[in-house]
Amino acid sequence: MAGWGGFFVSLLNYKTEKYVIAENKKIGILFRLYQLAVLGYIIGWVFVVRKGYQEREEAIQTSVITKLKGVTLTNSSETGLHLWSAEDYVIPPNGEQVFFVVTNYIETPNQRLGFCAESFKVPNGRCQSDDDCVVGETVIAGHGIKTGLCLNSTGTCQIRAWCPVEHSQRPTEPLLSAAENFTIYIKNFIRFPKFEFSKSNVLETSDDSYLKRCSYDRENHLYCPIFRLGDLVSWTGYDFQGMAAKGGSVGIVIEWNCDLDKDSTQCNPQYSFTRLDLKLNKSVTSGYNFRYARYYKDQNDVTFRTLYKVYGIRFDIMVNGQVQQFKIFLREVAYVHDSGNRLAVNACYCFAGWEIQYCTHNNCHWFGCCPAWCSK
Ligand SMILES: *[C@@H]1O[C@H](CO)[C@@H](O)[C@H](O)[C@H]1NC(C)=O
Ligand SMILES: *[C@@H]1O[C@H](CO)[C@@H](O)[C@H](O)[C@H]1NC(C)=O
Ligand SMILES: *[C@@H]1O[C@H](CO)[C@@H](O)[C@H](O)[C@H]1NC(C)=O
Ligand SMILES: *[C@@H]1O[C@H](CO)[C@@H](O)[C@H](O)[C@H]1NC(C)=O
Question: Is 321:267 a contact under the CB 8 Å cutoff?
């Protein structure tokens, strides 16, 4: 019961704070030094260096749509003339942020399912006798399944596959060398949700012929995102025809760094271009290629196909950015702790607009609005 009694008595107590004024110059100077250090930190580091009065956002939301234009005619000794338009040389053709442009190819037409000799280029397909070609075994890294025969004429196993297998060499000069003059239109839309700021890299104009005749120019046509492929590659420091023969990879970076305190006309895209693959001439890893096939049916309803091994340039479009704008409350809070000292200052400075607020333990001496967290 004594516990309850003490509790009720304590309810009737009046509690207040007791301030101690220490008329001690050393402590006084120390206290002012603390304040100066905090102020120096805020003005020097937070304001001047980190620009802490600005709020940043790096969570950019973006969409990229691409479109290529240009047509060329190739003339190969095996299959004759072939007209290439964007539907044929852009893979995939649906205007993606990452896409591949065919600049060179090996075509193996009229392949049918059947039996033929494995290519001599495949080590596992070579043989001395039939014993090297076990029936039903797959040729490792090859084109088909062994039938058990070793063919004298080629020195390789007979296989069940799409025949004949690919045997041509890569043309040393790119077949689609004219791709240098193809153009790419890159439409980029960005948004920063926190500031509800959005912009596009295409000029907002009612002149619908503008995009048909303009081409990108850093000074005069910054908002005309139409680039010649040859220029894109040359800006990475490489030669287009050299890259076109074996293939390669190019990165296009669109950077949006904006200070929203300034006019929105000051917020402009910056483009940069880099080569992303290994550029060693002799290295077997250099270049970029892959294969695909187109399937057809003959009069007798039998499927046959044309195999393409395509070499080309892969473009990756990357969008980065951040915006900053004047912020109402400063998040950085400076604390000064010295709990051993009776004059301990637990200070917190925060900013509402340009007004400075200064809090100690329990009291806020303030010249502006006081956010709740400041008194914690
Ligand atoms: C295509 O090449 C062949 C020889 O390989 C040549 O006879 C023919 O004239 C060429 N056609 C064109 C349109 O260049
Ligand atoms: C392949 O060559 C070997 C010896 O050189 C011979 O015995 C064999 O009959 C040949 N096979 C064919 C299919 O010509
Ligand atoms: C690209 O166009 C220019 C000017 O029209 C022309 O001189 C050049 O030969 C073309 N390049 C290729 C690879 O066709
Ligand atoms: C790559 O080869 C081309 C010609 O084939 C040559 O001009 C260039 O200097 C070579 N580059 C390097 C890095 O070896």
Answer: no
Q: Cβ(127)–Cβ(157) under 8 Å?
A: yes
Q: How far is the CA of 144 from the centre of ligand 2 (A)?
A: 23
**Rounded to whole angstroms, what are the CA distances from 159 to 108, 119, 350?**
17, 10, 78
pLDDT in tens, 298-326: 999 999 999 999 999 999 999 999 988 76
State the ligand closest to the CA atom of 245.
4
pLDDT, greater one: 334 or 181: 181
Q: Look at ligand 3, atom 7, and give the residue with the nearest C-alpha.
A: 181
Does 178 contact ligand 3 (Cβ within 6 A)? yes
- Please count the CA atoms within 13 angstroms of the CA of 176 that sit on its side-chain side: 31
Give the SS3 label for residue 291.
strand
Helices (DSSP H) in 195-277: which residue ranges?
A: 210-213, 229-235, 240-246
Helix residue ranges per DSSP H, the chain: 2-11, 25-40, 86-89, 210-213, 229-235, 240-246
Residue 339: per-residue pLDDT:
47
Ligand 3 pocket mutation pick from 73, 103, 181, 233 by most atoms within 8 angstroms of CB: 181
What integer pLDDT is reported at residue 347 of this predicted model? 41
Instruction: Identify the residue whose C-alpha is closest to ligand 1 atom 10.
Output: 75
Nearest ligand, CA of residue 78?
1
DSSP string, 135-179: TTPBPTTSSSEEEEEEETTTTEEEEEEEESPP-PPPPSS-TTGGG
Cα separation, 338 vs 355, in Å, equals 26
Q: Do β-strands 90-91 and 98-117 pair in parallel, antiparallel, or remain unpaired?
A: antiparallel
How far is it, in rounded angstroms, from Cα 286 to Cα 154? 30
Q: How far is the CA of 226 from the centre of ligand 4 (A)?
A: 29
What is the 281 CA–ligand 4 centroid distance (Å)? 6
